[in-house]
Amino acid sequence: MTKSTLTRREMLGHGLRLAVIGSTPALLSACKKPELHCEDASGLSEADLVLRTQLEYRDLSPHGESKNCESCAFYRAGEKNACGRCTLVKGPIHPLGYCDSWAAKG
């Protein structure tokens, strides 16, 4: 049976790797936009809920940044880090959301 020993340089290298790996989640979470929850449509009328469903509103655009509520002509931004509004779809609207009535800002 052979006994393995680590050199000081190897131990420092392993320690540095562990420190980087351990701090990565904290660094990534500091760079992300705050998570918004814009699904609550509890105060809407039945007609507004039907329209929201018919236009297939969702909180995350399947088109990514190229077509989302933030880049839509009907979107009205809320306060910083808050849900916005739409002139067509009632209720809270996520800036990264999407619906079938999306139209590019002019």
Write the layout of secondary structure elements.
Elements: H1 8-31, H2 46-54, E1 75-76, E2 85-86
Antiparallel strand pairs: 1-2
Name the overall outline.
Answer: elongated
Q: Work out the number of β strands.
A: 2
Profile the largest sheet.
Answer: 2 strands, antiparallel
Tally of helical segments: 2
Order of helices and strands: HHEE
Average pLDDT, rounded to a whole number, is 85
Structural class: mainly alpha
Distance between the termini: 75 Å
Residue runs with pLDDT of under 50 for 5 or more positions:
none
Strand order across the largest sheet: 1-2
Rg is 23 Å
Textual characterization of the structure:
- 31% of the residues lie in helices and 4% in strands.
- The chain is mainly α.
- It has a two-stranded antiparallel sheet.
- Strand 1 (75-76) and strand 2 form a beta hairpin.
Would you summarize the structure shown here?
31% of the residues lie in helices and 4% in strands. The protein has helices at residues 8-31, 46-54; strands at residues 75-76, 85-86.
